[in-house]
Amino acid sequence: MIRSIAAVLCLAAVAPVSSAQESDIAKGLKNLAEMHRIASAIELRRTLAGTTQMRLPPDPWGTPYDVQETTSGYRIVSAGSDLKFDEMVALTSEQFDGLEGDIVLEDGRLVRSNRNWLYSRIAGNADASPALEQLRQAEIDHAVMRIPAMKMLTGVKATAMAMQMVASYIDQNKTAPPPELSRDAWGTPLRIDLNPDGTYRIVSASADRKFDEESWTRPPAPNTGEDIIFENGKVTRQVNEAEVMRTGTIRAAAIPQPPDPSLEGGRWLRVREGITAPVPVQRVEPVYPDEYRRAHVTGIVVLEVAISESGTIEDVSILKSLAPGLDMAAADAVRKWTFKPAMQDGKPVPVLFNLTINFKLK
Predict the structure, then answer these.
(1) 130 with 27: CB under 8 angstroms?
(2) Is 269-359 in CATH node 3.90.1070.10?
(3) Given CB 3.0 to 4.6 Å as the disulfide criterion, which of 32, 235, 273, 329 pairs with 286?
(4) 360 in helix, strand or coil?
(5) What DSSP assignment string belongs to 177-206?
């Protein structure tokens, strides 16, 4: 979790654009990761002030992202590999196949995505594996950055960095910097006391934007509204991040993605009168990704599975998403299940069957 806070301080930095040698699948994964990084930077900027400079890179195919912000929300759109925005397509909420369609991330969550299709094509792709890890980290960083306490802790870190820059200015120029260069992460002007002997004190009002001089001689409570003090080259008063995390509500909300299309059609039947349900013979428990466990993301994933006459899983569709990493963990595990097949008139038949996978902390 601490790693996520530090990483977000650099969220708006330009990420390297994919090289010509990288696979299209890797580009698709990097595109999604970049969209999550942009969303995280927007989320942070809406809580703090002046901590994120939105220097947006183009997408991996060279097209600028379409970023729209209002007072009530934001929308990020990627044109995809065809380099063309399609406003009508972008209004739909779905998972789609391929790299050409628009991808839409709106107010913190994907509403149109090819993530599941990309995931299904990474096997044996050397370029895709590191790109997938980057995407996974960007997704969990984004989920964590939506926690109010984490945004505030990021503000504490960013303020300490701003104070260090002000101190460097004082050391070099023997005077305080202009007001526009001496604000904390919440946009409040830093209080700077510069003495004739060259010693100085820099104070941030912190998250509550109010200075409390009476508190300066006391250790700070585990509250991000506590004043921060930087004196003569070092921070002398700052909230204990670990204590804030221990006493606060550090629980990331799940960010679901749009569902896959149903597997309806073809030879697949539904369990109904006259067709007995398949029965699991071998179950494989999903791997609960550590990053989601640490962030306390819990809930259910609902899968639609196509079970053959022999009782094996031929296809999986995600009908109800919890979060991308958990969706994939559930689908990967269920693909290894085997069943006593569904029966009709004494014969095994292929059916579609819904399964619910529950991720919970023990």
Answers:
(1) no
(2) no
(3) 329
(4) coil
(5) PPGGG-B-TBSPBPEEEE-TTS-EEEEE-G
Structure tokens, 294: 């640490």
- For the chain, domain boundaries: 2-146, 150-247, 269-359
Could you report the per-residue pLDDT of 226-247, keeping only the tens digit for each? 999 999 999 999 998 888 877 6
- A 10 A CB-CB count for 129 gives 13
* Rg, C-alpha atoms of the chain: 25
pLDDT in tens, 263-302: 998 899 999 989 999 999 999 999 999 999 988 899 999 9
> CA 14, CA 56: separation in Å to the nearest integer?
6
260 to 114, 304, 324, 346: CA distances (angstroms): 10, 9, 12, 32
* Per-residue CA distances from 163 to 3, 7, 9, 244, 298 (Å): 21, 19, 15, 21, 38
Do 326 and 292 touch, CB atoms closer than 8 A?
yes
Instruction: Please state, in angstroms and as integers, the Cα–Cα distance from residue 79 to each residue in 57, 84, 134, 160, 286, following that order.
Output: 14, 5, 20, 38, 34
Q: What is the pTM of this model?
A: 0.83
CA dihedral of 74, 9, 189, 205, whole degrees rounded to 10 = 100
Distance CA 326, CA 332 (A): 10
Q: Encoding tokens for residue 346?
A: 């004494």
